[in-house]
User: Fold this.
Amino acid sequence: GAVVSQHPSWVICKSGTSVKIECRSLDFQATTMFWYRQFPKQSLMLMATSNEGSKATYEQGVEKDKFLINHASLTLSTLTVTSAHPEDSSFYICSARGAVGGQPQHFGDGTRLSIL
Amino acid sequence: AQSVTQPDIHITVSEGASLELRCNYSYGATPYLFWYVQSPGQGLQLLLKYFSGDTLVQGIKGFEAEFKRSQSSFNLRKPSVHWSDAAEYFCAVGDNTDKLIFGTGTRLQVFP
Assistant:
């Protein structure tokens, strides 16, 4: 149980384009979803937290107009990197947590984004 | 400030040997503690978690971890390592399961 699917797993695009990444909880209702960014050989840095039906809460230093997060249903959250540039290239990982107290976060397999 | 320290960046062990990965934390309140494993190019898989109760926690894949409040530690152990255990291991701490602070990770290499 507690499977989180992330799509796509890998994307390459030209500088200036926008890229959407989907995160789905397959077998549970994810009231809260999280988006992380991971640079090579480094740890995960939380970008934002989203609750279903609410605006996302962004961590300090994360541009909310650059990284648009939508959490319109209990099973789907999307991260859109707008006008992507090479410095946005990274590994993006989502996680999801159910509503029951004490539930841990379950992670997707990540999306490797490469901006040319 | 809240933080997690994994002192060992890279550990190499022989298959069948025992393993201990260190994790120290700095946290104001009673923490929620987690160990996650990440294979190359993939997301994180939860190995085990500690919220309260018995300080020795059993996880998946034969891993266990012990919470030692006096030492602010939550070290991960496995009595006999398998080649498939080679991966990156992250310790994480939080006040609930939302805002997690991750350590920098320990890369485990297993020799046959």
Summary: The radius of gyration of chain B is 13 Å. The mean pLDDT of chain B is 92. The interface with chain A takes residues 34, 36, 41-46, 49, 51, 90, 96-100, 102-105 of chain B (CB under 8 Å).
